[in-house]
């Protein structure tokens, strides 16, 4: 009886602790959502729940644009285009490198994998200045294609999870195809890819999220001061300027809500494949 009591108490305390942490974690999100529906357009730190609710911030954000910082529809399309191109290129790189590391054997393979893992441990911002000056010399700063190159250039280093998934696919399928005269390219396209839907979904969503949420690289690369060049992250950050925060904070909150909608919908739709990709890719390395 005593062991059952302590077991039940421990179970209750653990879940109570997790519930409290979840509540604390959700407070800023709820506050942002509530402020996006506030009639008051500034930042009110005295009230958690606004006095009056309206859709004014969303109307101003989407339709009352100007040439300074209120260009949300343009920012959204810029970010969407960068994320789509970066996601497609990065996904192709990751899947190709993962297949190579999983199925092909060549001298230096293990050393290359170890070096790639070690290199991936270093934060990306350590190379920001060097990358900026390299792209500047090619005229790719203040250019969306420059950002696409940054986001997709080193994406192949994130091959580890996809490689683990490819390791779970039976080698006999590839061997049978080789006996029938199939090339490695044909095996990859016609056998491996059709069997890899979960890891493809995981890879595409992960590659899409990087440019969609990035601020640091976008802020450094898009420094011309022309608001139509900005991404959503850069544009919303400029709304928090001291001269604008008292008139644009509700619009900033509304922008934060709108930006979260596409990726939330995408994740909900693809959640099953996303989870399968993570768990399958982690079973074997």
Structure notes:
- The structure is a single chain.
- The chain is mainly alpha-helical.
- The chain has a single domain, classed as MetI-like (MetI-like fold).
- It contains 13 helices and no strands.
- Helix 3 packs across helix 12 (232-238) and helix 10 packs antiparallel against helix 13.
- The relative contact order is 0.15.
Summarize the structure in short.
By secondary structure, the protein is mainly alpha-helical.
Q: Which descriptors would you attach to this protein?
A:
285 residues; mainly alpha; MetI-like fold
Topology:
Layout: H1 2-36, H2 56-63, H3 72-103, H4 109-120, H5 128-137, H6 144-153, H7 160-167, H8 171-179, H9 184-192, H10 197-213, H11 216-221, H12 232-238, H13 245-281
């Amino acid at each position: 009886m005593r062991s059952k009591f302590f077991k039940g108490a421990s179970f209750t305390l653990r879940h109570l602790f997790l519930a409290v942490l979840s509540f604390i974690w959700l407070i800023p999100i709820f506050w942002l959502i509530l402020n996006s529906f506030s009639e008051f357009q500034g930042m009110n730190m005295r009230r958690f729940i606004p006095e009056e609710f309206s859709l004014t911030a969303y109307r101003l954000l989407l339709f009352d644009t100007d040439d300074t910082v209120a260009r949300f529809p343009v920012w959204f399309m810029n970010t969407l285009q960068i994320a789509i191109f970066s996601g497609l290129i990065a996904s192709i790189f990751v899947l190709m490198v993962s297949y190579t590391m999983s199925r092909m054997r060549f001298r230096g393979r293990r050393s290359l994998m170890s070096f790639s893992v070690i290199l991936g441990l270093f934060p990306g911002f350590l190379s920001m200045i060097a990358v900026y000056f390299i792209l500047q010399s090619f005229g790719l700063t203040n250019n969306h294609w420059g950002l696409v190159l940054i986001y997709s250039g080193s994406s192949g280093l994130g091959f580890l999870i996809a490689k683990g998934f490819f390791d779970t696919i039976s080698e006999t399928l590839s061997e049978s195809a080789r006996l029938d005269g199939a090339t490695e390219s044909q095996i990859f396209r016609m056998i491996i890819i059709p069997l890899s839907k979960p890891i493809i979904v995981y890879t595409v969503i992960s590659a899409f999220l990087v440019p969609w949420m990035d601020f640091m690289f976008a802020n450094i690369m898009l420094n011309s001061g022309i608001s139509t060049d900005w991404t959503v992250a850069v544009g919303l950050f400029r709304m928090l300027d001291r001269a604008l925060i008292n008139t644009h904070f509700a619009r900033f909150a509304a922008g934060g809500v709108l930006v979260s909608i596409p990726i939330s919908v995408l994740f909900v739709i693809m959640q099953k494949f996303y989870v399968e990709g993570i768990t399958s890719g982690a079973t074997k390395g």
